[in-house]
Amino acid sequence: MSGAGTVKLKINGVEVTAYEGETILEAAKRAGIRIPTLCYLDGLSNYGSCRLCIVEIKGSPKLFPSCTTPVSNGMEVITDSERLRKYRKMTVELLLSEKPHVCAVCVANGNCELQDLAKEFGVDHLRFDREWTRQKIDLTHDFLVIDNNRCILCTRCVRVCDEIEGVHVLDIKARGKDSQIIVDMDEDWGSSRSCTSCRKCARVCPVGAIYVRDKPISETKDKDIAQFIISRRRR
Amino acid sequence: MVLKPEDILRIAREEAERQRSYRYRINVCCSSGCLPFGALQVLKAFEEAIKEFGLQGECRVSRTGCVGTCSVGPVVLIEPGGYLYQNVTPENAREIVKSHIVSGKPVKELLYANEAFFKKQLRLVLRNAGKIDPLKIEDYIAAGGYSALIKCLTKMTPKEVIDEVIASGLRGRGGAGFPTGQKWNFVAREKNTPKYVVANLDEGDPGVFANRTLAEADPHAIIEGMAIAAYAVGAEKGYIYVRAEYPLAVQTLREALKQARSMNLMGKNILETQFSFDIELRLGAGAFVAGEETGILASIEGRRAMPRPRPPYPATSGLWGKPTLIQNVETLANVPLIILNGGSWFAKIGTPKCTGTKCFSLTGKVNNPGLIEVPMGITLREVVFEIGGGVPSGRRFKAVLVGGPSGGCLPESLLDLSIDYESLTKAGAIMGSGGIVVIDDESCMVDTAWFFTDFCVDESCGKCVPCRVGLLKMRNILERIMKGEGRLEDLDILSELGEYVRDVSLCGLGQTAPNPVLTTLRYFRDEYITHIFDKRCPAGKCFRSQVSMKEAP
């Protein structure tokens, strides 16, 4: 990989060659450097909402989301520092305190990306008061369940439904702290006429918010589904 | 009607002559500040009084935009002489006509007395506000309007226009202060077409009304500025994004666009030149985040107004993926002046790094609230105490919030701070959308910080975690402190959260939203400590409300 269309940059002091137009996250991934992510999913459009993949770029006091920041020649990226770790831990803490996340009674226990990140960053308690308000769980679909009490609003389900399945059944209503994933025009999932019951939403949900009832979650989750479909389409 | 540049100049001459033929011009402010106090009735009363005394040929009564002194409306400006009458009632109107117009004796007891309000101001952007009828394009043309556009179209290349703007040093008035000429350059050099120009007229901040007032008072200044920008960057289509809660601004702009089109100043081959440009109004549903540039673009495209990460910047990929120049309306209204008087003239106003003037909405506990325009580099003390006339009814000045709900609360010791982008940012405040709220010693700073944080919690779009959850937790901690249940470690968590939200948030709103908390922690920490240790509110605000909360059934 050299010549036209490529750029050279440094990630954590290591020189890396990347394609022009590639994001820092993609370049790091190919170089074997892992940056924690949550809303990012290979194969879907980049959303930049979870802010876990923030990195430092030398010469700028600002932080940059690596999933949406393109590489440029001579760029020096730091993907891990005390400041970044502190902020990433804060993000996980805030997400855990936003909704009544109780791992012990969650279907995704042991298969949850948020739980994994909490372990990784050493979140052993929360400094913020937790939210215990309960929201209705939609059990009307034949086998798909949406539990907004566990949703972290990463919109992977919204994007996979829109961009891969192409039906756009799911979306967000309201804003800010009241944001919520809805089905069609905020209807019961069971009465949805647009849902094809393809289960892609359940496959890509990083937590236990959308799942297939009565199935072990280890069988129904597949976060590489979007990339898989796109590579199949290309063949 | 096909008009040429020389036709517009002729109209300007004729209209100016006609206006000079009037012995008196009576301008009744009919903008959003004066309308609720009966400005239209006052206007009617003047028209009737003029008829009654048979002065139709000698006097012109017209509705105009805001003069700036919004707290004493309805106001009436009588030219020549610049006599400003305040709190005018329909009954006063007849008296004023009889004494001032007929006998030449101004009614002293009705005149606006706070000379200091205008003394330190420099009204460039608001040059026509209160003086012309915003619904008559001839008025604007007679005041020199559209001659800057004519100059661009007939004598200047797009590059020369951009160079003039660069020479002026004009910076974006939307808050971030990015150099305007440089932004124009970015869009101009893009090859991708079509290109768009977007004017941002979405103010969501409590206590901020400068852009609305400008649109109500002088809509053609915005339109002309946009047309010049479009000529410079090579765009053929523009959008003005207005809050739907600004019905008068919407109506005024709509009428102005119609008149501009009828005079060949908008549309295909403007004034018989090669340049074509048209503007469409887009109404925003009223969300704070719809004022953020990428949020606006999403809204114009018909999507949910949510910001997206940059890059790509709108200059390369804006509306429908095309190069888009997006500017605040105040920035655009500066442009005709720069073209007419030259960039170097403009660069002499203000400070070397921050040229020109800035409009501020001055509100809160201040004697002369209203819309002001001051040269950059003026101090906060001059604004609050000289133009604003200080704090009313014997209270003491405590703080001033600069930059709207996500601005910073600055204490008395910082009053000599010069108003420019860099000094404000260093002190923890922002220029923002130009809101200055004066706070007196009756207010509690914890309560104040809570109020603005609560606003931002309500207005957060909810996309990114720091802004959606971080701000909410900050508000909850403030609430606990206000109830007397605060702990000392809360202060550390508040600053840590504040810095996190500032550094990690996706868009400018989240990045500035912790400012009220961070600055009150920095300058008024003792008040927080008193709340926590003594379980007492120094201003007597918080615990009183707590009692009433407990007493409520």
Structural account:
The complex is a heterodimer of chains A (235) and B (553). Chain A is 26% helix and 17% strand. Chain A is built from seven helices and ten strands. Chain A is globular, with a radius of gyration of 19 Å. Chain B is of the alpha/beta class and 553 residues long. Chain B contains 23 helices and 13 strands. In chain B, the strands form three sheets. A five-stranded mixed β-sheet of chain B has the order 10-9-13-11-12. In chain B, β6 (237-243), α11 (247-262) and β7 (278-284) form a beta-alpha-beta unit. In chain B, 56% of the residues are buried. The A-B interface holds A 46-51, 54, 62-63, 65, 68-70, 87, 90-91, 94-95, 97-98, 127-129, 153, 172, 174-179 and B 287, 289, 304, 308-309, 311, 457-466, 468-470, 472-473, 476-477, 493, 496-497, 500, 503-506.
Order of helices and strands of chain A: EEHEEEHHEEHEEHEHH
Helix content of chain A: 25-40%
- Cα end-to-end separation of chain B: 70 Å
Q: Largest contact between protein chains? A: A-B, 31 and 31 residues
Rg of chain A, Å, rounded:
19 Å
Can you list the strand order of the major beta sheet of chain B? 10-9-13-11-12
Choose one word for the global shape of chain B.
globular
- Oligomeric composition of the shown chains: heterodimer
Task: Please give the share of residues in helix of chain B.
Answer: 40-55%
What's the total helix number of chain A?
Answer: 7
Can you summarize the main beta sheet of chain A? 5 strands, mixed
Mean pLDDT of chain B: 94
Question: What is the arithmetic mean of pLDDT of chain A?
Answer: 95
Which percent range describes the beta-strand content of chain A?
15-25%
Question: What is the total tally of β strands of chain B?
Answer: 13
**What is the number of beta strands of chain A?**
10
Q: What is the structural class of chain B?
A: alpha/beta
User: For the terminal residues of chain A, how far apart are their CA atoms?
Assistant: 23 Å
By helix and strand content of chain A, what is the structural category? alpha+beta
Q: What is the number of helices of chain B?
A: 23
